[in-house]
Amino acid sequence: MERTILHVDINSYFATMLQQENPHLRGKPIGVVKDEGRTCLIALSKEAKQFGIETGARKQEALTLCPQLLCLPASFERYLDATKRLQKVFLTVAPSVYIYSLDEAFIDVTDCREHLYPDLEKLGKTIQDRIKTELGEWVTCNIGIANNRFMAKMASEVAPKGGVSIVTPDKKELILATTPFKDVCGIGYRLSKKLARCNVFYPYQIRFIPEEELHTLFGPFWSVQLAKMAYGEEPHLLQQIDREIPHMKSVGRSITGYHLYQNPTEIKRILHNLSIEIIEKVRIQKLAGRNIWIGLYGQEGYWSAHLTIATPINQVFELINRVDHLYKQWNHSFEVIKFAVRLSLLEPHQQDQLLPSWQKHESIQRALDTINTKFGRFTARPAAVPPQKELIYPEVTGFLGDKLYQLRNE
Ligand SMILES: [Mg+2]
Q1: 300/260 same-domain check
Q2: Can you list the pairs that 371-375 forms with residues at least 24 positions away whose Cβ atoms lie under 8 Å?
Q3: How far does the centroid of ligand 1 lie from the alpha carbon of residue 151, in Å?
Q4: Which CATH number covers residue 230?
Q5: How many whole angstroms from 99 Cα to the centroid of ligand 1?
Q6: What is the CA(108)–ligand 1 centre distance, in A?
Q7: Which of 13-27, 141-155, 232-246, 308-322 has the lowest mean pLDDT?
Q8: What is the CATH number of the domain that holds 390?
Q9: What counts of helices (H) and strands (E) characterise the chain?
Q10: Residue 174 falls within a domain, yes or no?
Q11: Chain centre distance of CA 215
Q12: What is the pLDDT at residue 399?
């Protein structure tokens, strides 16, 4: 049986949610920044887009295009809450729902289509209505419907705002021939530039490039992916959704500082702060990891180091020790603006160790977990972290890279 996949994409999600909550913002050009004091516009309202402002633009350039632009900080916790409510709406349609990012989801209706949803256009409209009921009247979405995730996503991309687009065979060829590569899922900025240099702007054009030439130009991986996209088939990026494992493979966290850092004590404190967050997430999911990685980014330079160990760890003291050990290898060749820590090769944590030292640390860790759960994050914490007012708290990212954690069943 042919598959039927819906791709739902909320229009201008972050800005729309702000307008939903504050009616006086409706109809106004809004730019969303990550936080107070940041200048990169991570999202725009539809009104702001009409001024030609693009996502990722700097606040200053945007204000020259649209002086009345309102810049407001994002509220990821609220978006995550709204996404969880969207997930519930989607689960009323079919049991197979995949939340792709905060504002995008795939719903597979293959098995229930025949009996429940003979009219797909009507199904699309019903979902749009249910979203309005759940999140508010200002919230609109595009829905693309096709026989795979790639074409469903392409269809929602090309649908008019708030529309439902069903991919018929004719329409499929048209979409592939008219959607520029920069709007195609999985094609990054660099690849789309390279394609443009070869005079290739639309997926359909790939069909005219002989296989061997494609291979020479784009290498073994991308030549295959591009050939699939040319015919509207699912590339690796979307296919791997089916292979997603039931737990996270790694938990990482990065933060861009407000200024450049030089002082080793301050740098280490930030790395420790990020380590605490990682351990919290890892422990909540009952996982432990064997690979520790740290990365430091300067304005021009970048340095990283990693270490793989035999026994998986999930205690904050263990992670901080390993992070400090890696940090010692750094030669302080630049001032640091961005910090990152990652614990990977995660596996379900089963066997408690018998070593007395491990058991002591585990008791301390459990005491910390209990206190922090009861009285709030960082109530009890290692001493070597930033002072209270500079503590870094967990946040949700737009692409929801840690969805297995954020959307877990509690
Ligand atoms: Mg969207």
Answers
A1: yes
A2: 372/280
A3: 16
A4: 1.10.150.20
A5: 12
A6: 19
A7: 232-246
A8: 3.30.1490.100
A9: 15, 13
A10: no
A11: 30
A12: 67
| Nearest Cα residue to 154 out of 132, 109, 185, 181 | 185
The whole-chain average pLDDT of the chain stands at 91
* pTM for this prediction: 0.80
Q: Between 120-135 and 76-91, two packed helices, what is the crossing angle to 10 degrees?
A: 140
- 173 found inside a domain: no
Strands 287-297 and 347-348: antiparallel
Instruction: Check: CB of residue 106 under 8 Å from CB of residue 155.
Output: no
Same domain (yes/no): 78, 157: yes
Percentages of the chain per state (helix, strand, coil), in multiples of 5: 45, 20, 35
Same structural domain, 286 and 190: no
In this prediction, what percent of the chain has a pLDDT beyond 70?
Answer: 99
Average pLDDT over residues 246-255: 90
Say yes or no to pLDDT of 56 above 90. no
pLDDT of 305-363, one tens digit each?
999 999 999 999 999 999 999 999 999 889 999 999 999 999 998 767 778 888 888 99
| Burial (CB count within 10 angstroms: exposed 0-12, middle 13-18, buried 19+), residue 226 | buried
**Domain assignment of residue 324, given as a range:** 250-406
Expressed in angstroms and rounded, the spacing between residue 202 Cα and the centre of ligand 1 is 22
Q: Are residues 257 and 377 in the same domain?
A: yes
| Ligand 1 centroid – CA 391 distance (Å) | 31
The answer to whether residue 172 sits within a structural domain is no
* Distance (Å) from CA 156 to ligand 1 centroid: 10
Number of domains in the chain: 3
Same domain, 150 and 216: no
Q: Please tell me the distance between residue 114's alpha carbon and the centre of ligand 1 in angstroms.
A: 29
Domain match, 12 and 156 both? yes
Under 8 Å CB-to-CB from 220, ≥6 apart: which residues?
Answer: none
> Residue 87: inside a domain, yes or no?
yes
H/E element holding 35?
A: none
Cα–ligand 1 centroid distance for 236 (angstroms) = 22
Domain co-membership, 134 together with 114: yes
Tokens standing for 305? Answer: 């180091």
- Which pair of tokens denotes residue 335? 């001032």
Angle at 293 between CA 347 and CA 244, to 5 degrees: 40
CA of 34 to the centre of ligand 1 (A): 17
